[in-house]
C-alpha cells in the first residue's frame, strides 16, 4: 500500500519543491550553542518545504538515559516545529549508541506534530519508509523520498562468519566496519517502487536517503572529469564493510536520481555516476569533529519538469561560528 504522510507534501504552484538535509548534528544535552543557532539559521535562510535529518542526529555515547534523549529532542526539533515545517529522519550509527532502543526512539520522533517519519515492520532497522510528494493541484505522486536505516550493531549472519571474517586486511581502504543496506530493505524498496509505478502509470522519480554512503560514491570521487564531481574531501571515505548492491538495485529500477548521505564530517560531495547523483553534506553539529566553515546543510531543489539542482548552505554565512570561550 502506498504510504501517506502525517502532513501532505506538495510541489509549489511553480512546480518546485525544496528540501534541506542536515546530517551529523550529533550533539548532546550540554550542546554547543552554535549547533542550534546554525540549524535555526540555515532553515530560516533556505525556507524549505521539508527538512531531512540525515542520521547521527544525536551523540548516543553521551546521551544515554531515555529522559536525556527526550530533552535533547525537544531542543533540536524546535527549529522545525516552531516554523511548522514538515521534517523526517533516518538513523545513523551514533543514534544507536544510546541506551534507548530504536523503536523507542522512533516513537519519540513520530510524536512530534510536524515529524512525518514512519517505519515499516518486518524490515531490518527502524527508519525504512517512503514519503510521497504530490502534485500541486492533484493527488498524483510526483516524487518519492525513500528513507533507509543504516544500522550499526552487527546482525546475525551465516553461522561461523564474523565481523572480523568480512574485514580482511587486504581490502579497498573505504571498506569500513559499517553495516550495509540489507537485501530485505532493497526488496522493500523495489516492491514499493513497482507498486507506485503501477499506480501512477510510470516510474516515479525519487531520492534515497541513508546515513552511510554506498561504495559507488567512490566512482564519482575518483572520476571527477566524467562525473562532474565537486568535493571538499578532508577525511578518508568510509563505506559499508560489504557491498550489498543497493546502488545496482536502484540503477536497475531506474527511478532514484539522488542518493543523499552524511556520515563523513569533513567531506562535501556532489557527483553523478550512472545517472544517479551522490551527495554528502558534512557535519552540521559543532560539538563533533569537523570543519567549522563547512558546517551547514544541503539544499535540493526538485522540479516537476524532471530537473533538480543542489547546493550547500553554510552556518558561517548566518551566524558567528567563533568557538565560545
Q: Any idea what the CATH superfamily is called?
A: Metallo-dependent phosphatases
Number of helices: 9
Give the CATH level 1 class.
Alpha Beta
For the record, the count of structural domains works out to: 1
Indicate the structural class.
Answer: alpha/beta
Shape: globular
**SS strand fraction:** 15-25%
Helix content: 10-25%
Largest sheet: 8 strands, mixed
Return the string of H and E elements. EEHEHHEHEEHEHEHHEEHEEEEE
Which consecutive residue ranges, at least 5 long each, have pLDDT under 50?
A: none
**How large is the radius of gyration?**
19 Å
The termini sit apart by: 53 Å
Strand ordering within the main sheet = 1-5-6-8-11-13-12-9
Mean pLDDT across every amino acid position: 94
CATH architecture: 4-Layer Sandwich
**CATH topology heading:** Purple Acid Phosphatase, chain A, domain 2
Q: Say how many strands there are.
A: 15
Molecular structure report:
With 325 residues, this protein is α/β, with parallel strands linked by helices. It has one domain (9-317): Purple Acid Phosphatase, chain A, domain 2, CATH 3.60.21.10. Helices cover 24% and strands 24% of the residues. The chain has nine helices and 15 strands. The strands form three sheets. Strands 1-5-6-8-11-13-12-9 form an eight-stranded mixed β-sheet. Strands 4-3-2-14-15 form a five-stranded mixed β-sheet. Helix 6 (183-200) packs parallel to helix 9. The longest helix is centred in the middle third of the chain and has 18 residues, at 183-200. The model has no long low-confidence stretch (mean pLDDT 94).
